[in-house]
Amino acid sequence: MARIHRYFLVLAIFFTFVLLVGLFFGWNDQVPSYLRDNHFSLGLSRPAPAAPPPPPRLPEVHPIEYLVSNARDSFSQVTARQSQTLEEAVHEYQRRYGISPPPNFDKWYEFAVSNNVRLIDEYDTINDLLLPMWAFSPFAIRQKVKKAFGGNDFVLQVSIREGNVAGYYNKGTNWRLKIIRNTIQIFAEWLPDMDMVFNMHDEPRVIIPHDDLARLVKRGREVRKTVGKDESSVSNVWSSPAKDLIQGFYNTSIIRPFNEYPHQFTWAISRSSCPPDSPARSLDLDGHPADDDTTPYIYPPLNFVQNHTLMTDICQMPSLENTYGFFNKPNAWSVSHDFLPIFSPSKISSFSDILYPAPWYLQEMVSIDDAKDLPWEEKADLLYWRGTTTSGFSEQGVWPRQNRQRFMTQAEKPGREHILKLDPDRELGWQLEETDRSTLQHLYNTHFTFIGQTSKEDHDAQKKFFDVRKDEDFQNVTLYKYLLDLDGNAFSGRFHAFLGSHGLAVKMALFREWHNEVIMPWVHYIPLNLYGSDHFEVMRYLTQESKGQELAAEIARESRAWAHNVLRQVDMQAYIFRLLLEYGRLSDDNRANLGFTLPSPDS
């Protein structure tokens, strides 16, 4: 009883402290920019106000149980607050972004509702990524589209003319182009005439220096505020097509907007959009790199992921320079330092590409045969992964610094790790304990099947170092409970399939994708930090503790149900539909007067 009283006393003191700090300093204004997401630090849109901080964890509650509980509470709040009518959706849009929705928003809403799209309001990513474009005039945006086609450097041209979608690629046909064109055609009748550029590389393409990006965001916010100020002139009708739109296939090599850096170290460029006061921009004046600032997103003692968005903000993690393949000789790296409206399937936090669902997902290039997928209870209690060394290009012995190789080294080689052990008296709770990796490596069935993207010397070294196995049928994932998803050159492409299976996705990833607002860590999958300090305890807890086993089964079940509701073709179509309505308004010469408004009660 005394211990319970102490707990509530601590709880009361905690909330009082948080309230006083919040009132005195303000909730957001005094937070250093490097403690926030890179885009949020530039003042972009935010979701609904956050809930109060969760109560302190009781000692006997494992950190994973605590994180799952908090994530479920947050997820319940998100699903409960969704708009139920067109009127509510319009008002919520205005609340979040300060302007009216784009023309034909009612057509998008009708499409979303008729296809049972679950999260009507969660599209902040679209508005955040498009905000810098408001700084440019519609004419300037169209010129930048043309510039992006210069040299046709692994980009696809997609054009809409009078509701018809055409696609062009300088090397003829392309499966990605066909999928993108067919997807847009579904709702093209509601879109204006416009031109778009889609990235064909795995890696993102647009990295803007922080000073330029900050100015674009500031100017973009100012311009966006002027939209629809004269309510009497607001129109829900697109303008006549601009005369400077591209005619047919735009094929020119006069301008080459992208700089090529394949097989080189790219950290210095990748961090250039980070705030100057961030750890990633440290000058290393004493000869040592700055420490990572993990405080905003890590939960002790084993650095469990508490905030996945902040975890993927490279501005807080200078250690990535030497631990992630994207910064250690990426296989392909073709980037622009000027803003170009490039649509890409994934990106690093510091990049300004516009995210859209990858053709890989739209075509279901990776799928699991539901008839072969074993029930959870019949699956092996193991973490499963098969793949190749596509973390980047390896030469001159750089491969130990690449992310896939670092994970496999832990899974296969001797070493010491920390796990958690519950104090028998429960007074001290879960305590760190050091153990040999060999006591837990039997839970891992994770192996390379091919050594690629490498020099001959590094190929031979990796072939000797790793336990390389024969390639297996992808459907073998149906035999295992825990399905590992790792970044490769960019996103892996397996995530949707894993989420929709009877297994449980365990994800270590830095790349951001379109679905980050609809799939929640600890509710639909298990997130891993990028250091490798947590996954041994994750596997131990989920497979050997009764509460962990219970949570794993629940998350796998809830993930499958949710994925079949929010990762369907129509969900991705709804995202692209809304994205292109926003993009269409941006490139319309009359955008200051464009917007969807609700009919007056008297009309």
UniProtKB/TrEMBL annotation:
<keyword id="KW-0812">Transmembrane</keyword>
<feature type="domain" description="Glycosyl transferase CAP10">
    <location>
        <begin position="298"/>
        <end position="590"/>
    </location>
</feature>
<dbReference type="Pfam" id="PF05686">
    <property type="entry name" value="Glyco_transf_90"/>
</dbReference>
<feature type="transmembrane region" description="Helical">
    <location>
        <begin position="7"/>
        <end position="27"/>
    </location>
</feature>
<protein>
    <recommendedName>
        <fullName>Glycosyl transferase CAP10 domain-containing protein</fullName>
    </recommendedName>
</protein>
<dbReference type="InterPro" id="IPR006598">
    <property type="entry name" value="CAP10"/>
</dbReference>
<keyword id="KW-1133">Transmembrane helix</keyword>
<dbReference type="InterPro" id="IPR051091">
    <property type="entry name" value="O-Glucosyltr/Glycosyltrsf_90"/>
</dbReference>
<keyword id="KW-0472">Membrane</keyword>
